[in-house]
Amino acid sequence: MDVYSKGLPAEDIDFLKTLVLHGVKLGLENINALLHYVGEPQKKFLSVHVGGTNGKGSTVAYIDRIFREQGIRTGKFTSPHLIDLAERFQINGTPISTEELHEQITFFRNVIEKTGILPTFFEFCTAIAFHWFALQKVEWAIVEVGMGGRLDSTNIIFPEVCAITNIGLEHTQYLGDTLEKIASEKAGIIKEKVPVVIGEKKQEVRDIFYKKAKDLSAPLWQIEKDFHVSWERTTDRAKLTYQSPVREIKGAFSRLSALYQCENAGVAIAVIDWLGQKGFFIKEEAILRGLANVRWPGRLDLISQSPWVLLDAAHNPDGIERLVENLEDKVSVVFSVADDKNVEGIIKLLSPYVNEFIITQFYGKRAMSAGKIKEIVSTTNVPFYIEQDFCSALEQGWKKAQQGHKLLVTGSIYAIGQTYEWLIKKGVIKKIEF
């Protein structure tokens, strides 16, 4: 993970890097202790909690934008970041300032020194988010689960509605090696009598959520049962049709046009429907404007049509499966992946849509070596070559695109973040839009 934030003092960066070295330690003990010491800031705003394997960030983005179109002051906490750590902490779509981030880091460093609590990097970020949101008097926080759910540090909130997008095999060393085990962990965000919206379609997984919700007397809505959503793509947008017991929407435009965003948009609107039933009414005009204006970079992001360059942060087989549904022609691919991912499954699904792989490795310790990726790609019939340096690989891909090839960069959210940096330096884009 690249711990970076423009203008942040080096001592802050160094401190955060020491937290990264603590690794992943699931559990609520540290976050409970930290937030209790600083006055339980997570209880000072209303919240929506969103988990799942893929699509949770997009769903958070939809809900956040709809709220903002209603005029609600929102906090949004997501992970990981693409380029800058500040992206994780946003109020009304604007990342935390360097000065405020420095103040929060300093504040919690002092708390740690006084209490002896040793949080992980993600626990520390969660504490910053909730404390900052409370200080800034947000009305609602839209919170993305970091990993799993039951023992994720974000699970300290008690939301008005929670949502689980879908379940795939990921982080198996922490969450379990079957869909059922992973679903059980993610079901841990379901709270007593709190409505839950499910975007997962596999029945064996839905059964786990149904049982958990029933045990906790939590009202449950499931996609294709309690609400329905369909999608018609246009050139650069999509038209959505949605139906639930609360409302019907026809022909609403969505800025996010990937086929896989259909379910995410549906889950987001279903969350809004449940909030209305609890007395938090959102105007339909705000829903329509939210769908039309939402931004979530790195998800089927067509950076340029001439040359044709597409970025997608798919990093597991389920994500790749949803990505290739949107490819109309074969593509050249700049491919890199984190070393803990199922690269065999990814390549198997991706290779039928590829003219040529440019195998590389993004910058950072988490990257799988280009040599290891080559071993998998060489079992396919797809031509490939290796470019060890990530920016050099992007340059080669860009040249291909200028020659008329369609270029896709995918495999890792870290790679996508570094690609945005490269595109900004090259002058192709000015900044990432949220």
Question: Could you explain the architecture of this structure?
Answer:
It is a single chain. This protein folds into two domains: 10-224, 3-Layer(aba) Sandwich (UDP-N-acetylmuramoyl-L-alanine:D-glutamate ligase); 301-426, Alpha-Beta Complex (Protein-Tyrosine Phosphatase, Chain A), CATH 3.90.190. The chain contains 15 helices and 17 strands. It has helices at 10-20, 29-37, 56-69, 98-115, 121-135, 172-175, 179-186, 203-215, 261-277, 284-293, 317-324, 343-350, 370-377, 390-402, 413-426, and strands at 46-51, 74-77, 89-91, 94-95, 140-144, 161-164, 196-198, 220-222, 228-233, 238-243, 248-254, 301-305, 308-311, 331-335, 354-359, 384-386, 407-410. Helix 4 (98-115) crosses helix 5 (121-135) and helix 11 packs parallel to helix 12. The model has no long low-confidence stretch (mean pLDDT 96).
Which key phrases capture this entry?
single chain, 434 residues, alpha/beta, UDP-N-acetylmuramoyl-L-alanine:D-glutamate ligase, Protein-Tyrosine Phosphatase, Chain A, 2 domains, six-stranded mixed sheet, 15 helices, 18% strand, globular
